[in-house]
TrEMBL record:
The keyword Membrane applies. Keywords: Membrane, Transmembrane, Transmembrane helix. InterPro entries: FxLYD_dom. It comes from Metabacillus sediminilitoris. This is Uncharacterized protein. The chain crosses the membrane at residues 37-55. The lineage of its organism: Bacteria, Bacillati, Bacillota, Bacilli, Bacillales.
Length: 384
């Protein structure tokens, strides 16, 4: 037997204490018993240690998973709020813990795709601002096809934006077309094409059409009004009022047209009446006072014959035909020598022109005189 304390060898197997160090000696039986206990105890301890290690590892991994899931949730929330760079930062953080997490990698890919498509949408908006609607529509068609390949809720909002952009393109195209239209009928036809748009956009375009209808009808009506074409002006305004009912500007313009028409008709009637009076007075003058004596001269030759020469002037407004001058020649004592008449030449005397007449009275003697009794004429040339 050996002492477990000092290692001394004891020949007596039944000794209880070491003769060298005085420590109590363990018997073989006790040692065997302890050895047996250790044989059973070590596996149990190892098992417990393994369990503890597995439990600790599980707790750690669970914490890591929870953190990664929390980062994933934050990334998804940030992405849905439009904070895409922040979402990518959360994903990068999550992948630093779980670089083999495929779902997180997929979400990273989706967000990057979304950012690229969103930038493409901004390019579409630039084309719309520059009124490059054809190319903008082509870009929109491409965007819609790419969005259809992605089922993420993130693309629902983007699809809505793309659809809004597509509607804006349609609105822009229609606005451009409206700007080219120049008649009420053309605008009315365009008005009937707006029912495919939503209420707000259709309302905006309708208002643009109504505004242009008012502008066009006002301009055309003013032109007709200036030309005194009152009925045409009213028709133009009424054509627009079919669509822009109770428009104050057009109603006011129509009222002004009607007022000016009444005033013009009254003035026109007064002008006609005045013109008729003037024409009547003119006709009376042409009939009675148009041809006036301009000059007359009587010369008696050495034989006592009187040579009469004179001029008449047409002071009227119409030609005078077949002018006849009636006269009386008297001697120096006032005794009538001759009642005569003579024609004026030319036969047709234009307004403002003078005509001549002449006559010879024989044996009138010296100091004879001539008196004009009457001048007659016609306003129409005799036929036949």
């Amino acid at each position: 037997m050996f002492c477990t304390s000092c290692g001394a060898n004891h020949l007596e197997n039944n000794a209880n204490y070491c003769s060298h160090c005085g420590k109590r000696l363990e018997s073989k039986k006790v040692k065997n018993k302890k050895r047996t206990i250790l044989v059973y105890l070590m596996p149990l301890i190892s098992f417990i240690i393994v369990i503890l290690l597995l439990f600790s590892t599980n707790i750690y991994e669970s914490k890591v998973n929870a953190k990664v899931l929390a980062l994933q949730e934050k990334a998804e929330k940030a992405a849905l709020e439009g904070k895409y760079q922040k979402a990518l930062a959360y994903i990068e953080d999550g992948l630093s813990y779980r670089n083999d997490y495929e779902i997180l990698k997929k979400e990273q890919e989706i967000i990057n795709t979304f950012i690229d498509l969103n930038e493409d949408l901004h390019e579409v908006e630039k084309k719309m601002i520059n009124e490059d609607f054809d190319n903008a529509q082509k870009e929109i068609n491409l965007l819609k096809r790419q969005i259809d390949l992605n089922r993420s809720p993130l693309f629902v909002n983007l699809l809505n934006q793309v659809e809004q952009a597509e509607t804006s393109v349609k609105v822009g195209e229609i606005k451009g077309e409206i700007n080219q239209l120049t008649t009420i009928d053309e605008l009315a036809d365009k008005l009937s094409t707006l029912y495919s748009l939503n209420i707000q956009e259709a309302s905006e375009l309708k208002q643009q059409i109504y505004t242009k209808m008012v502008m066009i009808s006002s301009i055309e009506a003013e032109k007709s009004l200036e030309a005194k074409h009152f009925n045409q002006a009213v028709l133009v305004v009424d054509a627009a009022l079919q669509y822009v009912v109770n428009n104050e500007k057009l109603l006011s313009l129509k009222e002004r047209i009607i007022t000016e028409k009444a005033s013009f008709e009254k003035e026109e009637q007064e002008r006609i009446e005045k013109a008729m009076k003037v024409a009547k007075a003119e006709e009376e003058r042409n009939l009675t006072k148009a041809v006036q004596l301009a000059s007359i001269e009587l010369k008696v030759d050495k034989y006592g014959d009187a040579y009469i020469e004179g001029k008449v002037k047409n002071s009227g407004t119409k030609p005078a035909y077949s002018i006849i001058v009636e006269f009386t020649v008297v001697d120096k004592n006032g005794k009538k020598v001759e009642d005569g008449k003579t024609n004026v030449f030319p036969n047709k005397l234009q307004p403002g022109k003078t005509g001549d007449f002449e006559h010879v009275t024989y044996s009138a003697k010296e100091n004879a005189k001539v008196e004009i009794n009457n001048i007659s004429w016609l306003l129409e040339e005799k036929k036949g």
